[in-house]
Structure formats: C-alpha cells, structure tokens
Specification:
With 157 residues, the protein is mainly alpha-helical. It contains three helices and four strands, in the order ββββααα.
Length: 157
Amino acid sequence: MAVPVRAAEKTVFTGDSGESRAMHLHKPCGYADCQEHGIASLGDEDLCCDHFVLRCYELLQQIDAGRTRGRSDVDGSSDLMRSVNSCLQGALEVSLRSDSLSNLQKSRLLDIMLWAGEYIHRAEEHRFSEQNLRESSTQRARYQKPQVKTSTTLLPQ
C-alpha cells in the first residue's frame, strides 16, 4: 500500500558564513531590508507574514480614519474594495498555508479577516440601501384612493 510522503523544502547555502537556510521558491519580502520570504502579496508587493499584517492594519486604519472624518469616498470605492478583499484573501491564505504561525500571528490574521469582513459588509449594506432608496423614489406611484367596484352578474334562468 502506497503512503503519501510530504515533500521536503529545498535547502540552499547562502551568505559568507555558509550557514544552511531553507529557502522557499517565493520572492523575498518587499518591505525595506527584510530578509524573510514573501508569503502573501498585497497589491504588487510580496510580503512576509509580519509585514503583510502591518500593511493590512495600515490600510484598515486609514479607512476607519476616513470614515470618522465623514469622507464619502471611503464607503465602497472600487479601489478600496479591491484592497480590502486582497487583505481578506491574503490573511485567509496565509493562515491556511503556514504551519509555523505563532498564536500572536494567528490572532492578528483573524483580526484582519474580521475587520475587513466588517468593512465589506458595511460597504455592501450602504450600497444596497442607496440602490433601494433610488429605486423606491423613481418607481413609486402616486397614491390612489381605493374605489369600490360593483359588478352585476346575470344568472341563467
């Protein structure tokens, strides 16, 4: 009977000291001088888990700050929705793919998923309420007073 075997990561020797380091086939993290491998992408950046979390929190905090200032472009613009969906999707993928996440990283990813999901829910709710308001104002007919209709039916004799 065949037993599936888990593939091992490719080990590559890097650096002057010749230390052994497991490298993934992903691109390196695009954040400043980070040496970690990219585990998720946000926009066109490949980021490690910690920097992905940092970027997502920055984006979600900017959205909240815009809402508190009453900016109308914050409620469901297509670019923001794409960015928030990217945060949500990335957080889900990182949490499902990574075997070595700390409890803190797991809780932050969950927080991002909940926060982004709440934003998407509010934006959809706002969009639908505006759409229903527009439809009801354009399709509403004038009130007509009910009329009593009488009909006479002749019965056969």
